[in-house]
Specification:
36% helix, 203 residues, two-stranded antiparallel ribbon
C-alpha cells in the first residue's frame, strides 16, 4: 500500500488545506496542490516584477493610444521622473501625460508614434516634459504597440530622464562650435608668409 502525503493549505477550521487531484475534496472544488503551486508561482513572479520596476531609473508604463496618452499603469519611478505620484497619473480625473509634454514637442511625438505602430515597429523618442516643480526635463522613451489580432489595444514602454546627458551634449557642442570659430578666425587672419627664408608679417 502506498501512502500519499499532502501539504495543508485550504480552509478548514481556520486552516488552509490543499488536496491532491482526483480526491473527493478536489472534485468538490477545493484547491489542488497544482493550483496552489501555480498561484504561489504567480505571486512570486509579480513580486519579482514589482521589485524590478521599483529599481529601474525611470518609469515603465502602459497607456492608451490616444492624444492624452491616457495611462493605465505607471511604475513608482514616475515620481522621480515627473514629480507626480502614480495615483496622480492613473485613473479618473488624473493628470494626462500629454499635459506634461512640452507643447512644442506634442505633435511631433504623436506623429512619430503613429508612424511606428502603423508598421508594428518599436518607437524611440527624445523630447521635453515639464515636471511638477515647473522645471523642464529631457527624456528618452522606448515603447511598442500591443496588438490583439489586428487591433491596437495599448502602448507599453519605458521613459527615463536624460537631462544631465543632454546638458552635457549641448555644452560639448557649444564648446566645439566656439573652438571651430576661433580656429577658422585664426586661419582667415593676417597673412604670414615667407620670402627668401625670412618670415614676413602683414603688409
Amino acid at each position: 500500500m502506498r501512502w500519499l502525503r499532502l501539504s495543508a493549505k485550504g480552509h478548514m477550521d481556520g486552516e488552509e488545506r490543499v488536496y491532491a487531484p482526483g480526491t473527493p475534496q478536489a472534485r468538490e472544488g477545493q484547491p489542488t496542490i497544482q493550483q496552489s503551486e501555480a498561484e504561489q508561482s504567480h505571486r512570486e513572479n509579480e513580486r519579482r516584477l514589482a521589485t524590478l520596476l521599483s529599481n529601474l531609473p525611470g518609469m515603465a508604463y502602459r497607456c492608451k493610444n490616444d492624444r492624452d496618452w491616457t495611462m493605465e499603469f505607471v511604475s513608482d519611478g514616475c515620481e522621480a521622473l515627473t514629480g507626480y505620484k502614480a495615483a496622480d497619473l492613473v485613473g479618473i480625473g488624473a493628470r494626462t501625460y500629454n499635459s506634461l509634454i512640452h507643447p512644442d514637442d506634442r505633435d511631433r511625438i504623436w506623429n512619430e508614434v503613429q508612424e511606428s505602430v502603423s508598421k508594428r515597429l518599436p518607437f524611440r523618442l527624445t523630447y521635453r516634459i515639464v515636471a511638477a516643480d515647473g522645471r523642464e526635463r529631457s527624456v528618452w522613451e522606448q515603447g511598442v504597440g500591443v496588438f490583439s489580432g489586428t487591433e491596437l489595444t495599448a502602448l507599453e514602454g519605458f521613459i527615463t530622464d536624460i537631462t544631465e546627458r543632454k546638458l552635457a551634449d549641448d555644452t560639448l557642442r557649444e564648446a566645439e562650435a566656439n573652438y571651430r570659430s576661433i580656429f577658422e578666425g585664426a586661419v582667415e587672419g593676417p597673412e604670414v608668409g615667407c620670402r627668401d627664408g625670412k618670415a614676413s608679417g602683414p603688409r
